[in-house]
Amino acid sequence: MGATLISLEAWGETDVGMKRRLNEDFFLIDDRIGAYLVADGMGGHAAGDVASRLAAEHIMEGLQEAKEAIAEGVSPVSVLRNAILGGHARLMEAVRQDASLKGMGTTIVVAFYPEPTGELVIAHVGDSRAYRFRQGELDLLTEDHSWVHEQVAAGFLSEEAARKHPLKNVVTQALGGGSEPQVEIHTVPIMDSDVYLLCSDGLNVMIRDEEIERILARSSSLQEASRNLIIAANRAGGNDNITVVLLKARAA
Known about the structure:
CATH superfamily: PPM-type phosphatase domain
Mean pLDDT: 92
Strand order of the largest sheet: 1-10-9-6-7
Structural class: alpha+beta
Largest sheet: 5 strands, antiparallel
Number of domains: 1
CATH class: Alpha Beta
């Protein structure tokens, strides 16, 4: 017998939060090419909302254009890396064309599933995250590209201190910066009933992973889980924009 085919159900939602007037987050879901993305724009007056939208749309266009290449055997990993670097180049081009956009940038996290092979490609730049919820347990699949994470990894800060640190929003990698970003990318095996969460840091900075785990465990649908996650982050203060994209694996 052949391997079980796994398909993905997806749902996404974004919220401005309780403290910001502008939503600089952006998400895209494209089931046709199996691409799911969350971008968290930076820059405020320097067009963070423009950065997240431009990069996200350009990445999706790159993945769409590479469908035939994947069918001919090109690795989805290399396709996704090239698409993300293309998004970075698009932002740099936009700044060259319009000096008022100087300083804009965005983090990105992408899940790519071009074929129902049972392997999900995860890529990120910055501190937007990917989680996996499997059999009642939540696992973080990405490592934040941020100053506080580096301090935690070096043993200089505790996780709790990092959550409250005034520099918690300082990222060390982003699309749109002066140098080419380092794209962290890997594949993870998918199991039936897995739930994958992509989110901007407006979620995980406000509520702990244990709370995310409880909400996912208690929610009966992706829509309910999405709404409950955003409500929880806003109840905790809603200091930033909040965006979640949820994927549910289903055996064909």
